[in-house]
Specification:
- The complex is a heterodimer of chains A (about 280) and B (about 70).
- Chain A is of the alpha/beta class and about 280 residues long.
- In chain A, about 35% of the residues lie in helices and about 15% in strands.
- The longest helix of chain A has 20 residues.
- Chain A is globular and about 55 Å long.
- The termini of chain A are far apart.
- The model of chain A has no long low-confidence stretch (mean pLDDT about 90).
- In chain B, a hairpin with a 2-residue loop joins strand 3 and strand 4.
- The two termini of chain B are about 15 Å apart.
- Chain B has about 70 residues and is of the alpha+beta class.
- Chain B is built from 2 helices and 4 strands, in the order E-H-E-H-E-E.
- The radius of gyration of chain B is 10 Å and the shape is globular.
- The chains are: A alpha/beta (about 280), B alpha+beta (about 70).
- Chains A and B meet through helix 3 of A and helix 1 of B.
Chain lengths: ~280, ~70
């Protein structure tokens, strides 16, 4: 495909995302009964059996709508765990196509899909994993211009992007709309995870006022696949805790993980009154 | 009248999943009578119920659980 045609498709996709219409519209949602079906009981039995989890928690997950920003190294485990766990509606945003150099860490994508849209490829796999949930792909790069339109209508956003600009755009959009947010990042073998309830807990900009001047992206710095897997898994767990109302989420705190030595550090943080994103 | 639950056609862990979810719908102090299959479930269901803090009484394959 010529680059101008590709550009044309990209602008069309961006326009679609601005109108917050997913690229593939799933079937009409059916009314959700207030109990789980026998198949759902079986599918989710290993979480329902837990002391901290029950039918009420499972139904809250089923009634939730989550947007995952980025279908890459963090987005792969996040999307797979949330779809598997039974989050009722999952949007997945990514404007990139699968590349050979992605595959060591982005396990939702396969070698046969090089050149295929990550959002669409991921959505297809998630639907195979759990046909009970609704998956909506958005083939577009999230930026400051379309962030709010994409975030609107979702209860919680999981930010699996790989640039600080995107992270701040997602944070600002969540502060504007009130959507809950799980932030995450990984470079090399080091990462962080933070949960945010805008207006009641510290936002990403409260904790990290400005992007570091010399921050490497993972494309420049490299990353070990399992390190991204750990951080993405922690993000999925945070999302499940927040959605189900299970206590212990990383609110007013972020977790710093250093995976060469295996150290996890929970760092307390707090809201700033003068925060340009969430300040009063 | 106590609620009853027949889990004789199920195997572990669905035996406890169904028991636990039924208990979640009861108020504290209400009783659930569980018809349990012989074998593993008859060990596991009463044990899980006790670990969750409920009062448990076993007579043959009938497990009576009073929700805490």
């Amino acid at each position: 495909m010529s680059s101008s045609r590709r550009g044309l498709f990209r602008s069309a996709a961006q326009a679609a995302a601005r109108a917050a219409i997913p690229d593939a519209v799933p079937g009409e949602p059916t009314a959700s009964p207030d109990t789980l079906s026998p198949d759902e009981l079986e599918r989710y039995s290993r979480q329902l059996v837990l002391e901290q989890w029950g039918e009420a928690e499972q139904l809250r997950l089923r009634d939730a709508s989550v947007l995952i920003v980025g279908a890459g190294a963090l987005g792969s485990p996040v999307a797979a765990y949330l779809a598997g766990a039974g989050v009722g509606r999952i949007g997945i945003v990514d404007g990139d196509d699968v590349e050979l150099s992605n595959l060591h860490r982005q396990h939702l994508h396969h070698t046969s899909e090089i050149g295929v849209s990550k959002a669409h490829g991921a959505a297809a796999k998630l639907q195979l994993l759990n046909p009970e949930v609704m998956v909506e792909p958005y083939q577009v790069r999230l930026d400051a211009g379309n962030a709010e339109g994409l975030v609107l209508g979702h209860d919680l956003i999981v930010d699996c992007s790989d640039t600080f600009a995107t992270r701040y755009a997602v944070n600002a959009a969540c502060c504007q709309t009130g959507a809950w947010l799980v932030e995450g990042g990984v470079v090399g073998v080091t990462g962080m995870v933070m949960s945010i309830r805008p207006g009641s807990s510290a936002c990403y900009r409260c904790a990290f006022e400005a992007e570091p001047a010399d921050a490497p992206t993972c494309a420049e710095a490299g990353v070990l696949g399992p390190a991204a897997g750990v951080v993405g898994s922690l993000q999925a767990l945070e999302a499940m805790k927040l959605l189900a109302g299970v206590p212990g989420a990383l609110l007013d705190a972020f977790l710093q993980v250093e995976l060469l030595t295996g150290s996890f550090l929970r760092v307390a943080t707090r809201r700033r009154d003068d925060c340009p994103d969430c300040g009063d | 009248m106590a609620a009853t639950l027949d889990i004789t056609g199920l195997t572990c862990p669905m035996t406890w999943v169904r028991t636990k979810l039924t208990l979640e719908k009861l108020a504290a102090g209400e009783e659930l009578v569980v018809l349990c299959p012989e074998g593993e479930a008859l060990d596991n269901v009463p044990r899980s119920a006790r670990e969750a803090g409920h009062e448990v009484d076993v007579e043959g394959a009938v497990v009576r659980i009073v929700r805490r």
